[in-house]
Amino acid sequence: MVDEIGPVMDISDTKEEIPMTMGSNEYEMIELFRRINVSRPIALTLACLSKGREISSQSIEMISGLRQPEVSVAMRYLRENNWIDIREEKKSKGKGRPVKLYKLTVPMDCIVSKIEEKIIAESRIVIGNIERLKSIS
User: Fold this and answer.
1) CA-to-CA distance for 48 and 22, rounded, in angstroms?
2) DSSP 6
3) Which of 52, 55, 91, 127 is most buried by its number of CB atoms within 10 A?
């Protein structure tokens, strides 16, 4: 299936039979995050988590096309900002490590506001440096 932005990826979540999809809204979200210099792994991971459902890191990898280390880096950033909840679930079949499931703990608009605050603070520093340069030139 293809939407106006690109292919729609259908991946079944480990917990639910409802397919996880990335549609035009998620692709636009990724593009806008990238335009404000949010790293690609974080932008893709946020888009995967944006529907508010619990999702495994493996599902994020499959939906986003990210590699496992990239998902881990994005998750570290999201954890440091207290934006996600992590839950481990034992595998129903076989041995191995439990599956980690992630879910946003704050609404996406709050995340966007925090990113906005950071960008504004950084911009004020840059403007202050420019003003200082003007005054000493």
Assistant:
1) 7
2) S
3) 55
Residue 8 burial class via C-beta count within 10 angstroms: exposed 0-12, middle 13-18, buried 19 and up: middle
Q: Give the pLDDT score at 6.
A: 41
- Enter the DSSP assignment of 38: -
Model pTM score: 0.78
Beta bridge partners of 2: 7
Residues comprising the chain, all counted: 137
The token duo for 127 is 């403007």
Long-range contacts (CB closer than 8 Å, 24 or more residues apart) made by 23-30: 25/50, 26/50, 27/3
Give residue-wise pLDDT tens across range 17-59: 345 678 899 999 999 999 999 999 999 999 999 988 999 999 9
Contacts of residue 25, Cβ cutoff 8 Å, sequence gap at least 6: 50
DSSP state of 2: B
